Amino acid sequence: LCNIKEGNEKDDGIEQTNNEIFKKRTKRYNNIRPNYHGNRVNTLHYPDPTRYNWTFTGSNEEGRVEFFEKTLNFGLVKLDFYYTTGTVKTTLVHPTTG
Predict the structure, then answer these.
(1) For residues 98 and 83, what is the distance between their CA atoms, to the nearest angstrom?
(2) pLDDT digits (tens, 9 = 90+) for 33-88
């Protein structure tokens, strides 16, 4: 993935946390919609997740995937939508203790 320094890193005089730095360096958080090149599955059968209150965060055209997030009462859920096949992958990011 990418190297992230421990602690905080300064960017233009503004302190950033590791999480903010990671978000800036990944396609998951590039906030760019892909060019589907006519290859997206039917939107009637596979509507955009934003219609269901998911937040679009970015995409990777090479991987033909769009990224979304939603915070629920049990943690942050990340959704990867592979727009040429309709495949959906979800990951729960939950807090750890101890």
Answers:
(1) 39
(2) 999 999 999 999 999 999 999 999 999 999 999 999 999 998 999 999 999 999 99
Residue 69: both structure tokens together: 């997030």
- The whole-angstrom separation of Cα 42 and Cα 32 is 20
pTM value? 0.73
The residue among 46, 64, 67, 65 whose CA lies nearest residue 56 is 67
The number of residues making up the chain comes to 98
CA distance linking residue 85 with residue 65, whole number of Å: 10
Say if residues 67 and 80 touch (Cβ distance below 8 Å): yes
Other Cβ atoms closer than 10 A to 68: 23
Q: Are 93 and 75 in contact (CB under 8 A)?
A: yes
3-state secondary structure of 80: strand
